[in-house]
# Entry
Amino acid sequence: MKEDCIFCKIVKGDIPAFKVYEDEQVLAFLDITQGTRGHTLLVPKKHVENTYGLTEEDAAALFKRVPKIARGIKEAFDPIGLNIINNNDEPLQSVFHVHIHLIPRYPSDGMVLTTLDRQDEYGKEDYEAVRKAIKEQLD
Ligand SMILES: [Zn+2]
# Structure
């Protein structure tokens, strides 16, 4: 629990939220923006700032609930697809209590969430340099 954290206040019940799922470790509630109908946030009850700070046990507890919430949204609204997003650090992250966005998608929903295909700009050596840079941090 962090005193000035809005998600900790929601977990504690000090701020109301439209809760869709809760157990001893996580809470899922509607994102107040409702960027699309059913846009839901999944948070751990324990305050952790972002993904970098999660222990493997924290991550397991949080991410293992994703399929359940995803299925619930799919059954409720029959979207054409579902984006699952986790933003880390400014300017991407706006609330510094780790959270996973589950965003159902609908035809012409106006959301712009996509990946770009830049493989034309990459040669084998570029892939290798990127691979090596990441792998060195993991070894
Ligand atoms: Zn918090």
About this structure: The chain has a mean pLDDT of 95. The helical segments are 6-12, 56-63, 66-77, 124-138. The longest strand covers residues 100-105. The pocket of zinc ion is lined by residues 2, 5, 7-8, 47, 97 (CB under 6 Å).
